[in-house]
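Write out structure tokens for SCP2 domain-containing protein.
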Amino acid sequence: MKPSNLPAPLVRGAMTVAPPFVLARAIDALLRKMERAHPRLFKNLARLKPYVIHVEPSDLPHRFALKFGGDEKAFVRLLDPRDETPGDACIKGNIDVLLNLLQGRIDGDALFFTRGLVIAGDTAAVVALRNTLDREEIDLFADVTSMFGPLQKPAERALTAIGRAREAARHRAAEFIDSLRDDKTADAAAPAWANERDALKAELKTLQTRIAKLEVREKLAKGASQDPAHS
């Protein structure tokens, strides 16, 4: 599965702190932009049987409803936390997996076996959505940055730099945590090594004492054999 070009940590952070009304407007603006950039996609979605799919990112405090089909224009709305109306299907997963799904980057054969992705309800709705997305070249990174107009290129460079910086920071944090785990492992093993060392030292001291006694006996034996009184 090809990773999303849109930095998932950045998306997660922005969508977490954004007030619901700001997030809803941003989603509407992105959908309008995508409709202009991918008119065939929206036409194909409209031709499908009408479905409502709930999308629930496991690492976000929001839920979304994606409605498409029935010769109507597809749209996404932010679900009210108190809204318990079920959809035809539900897709749950972290934001990185969901971004790849929405960009058609999850292989059809692996759709129901992708790690971190849970699908419930009418699976035909999810398969229809995935197959339609797969027929279109979708790059959310390009779609999002194009919303900056003449500042698209600087926005691309800025988002890429931020994504790389966050990834580097995450990598360094992971290495630091691993080093702490290694230190704890070494500390836990230290008493056992210390006990073994002390036992070996005691055994060595015993051997040294026995050798010293044998040397004394050997000297006494030699002295007795050389004594004229014993001749």
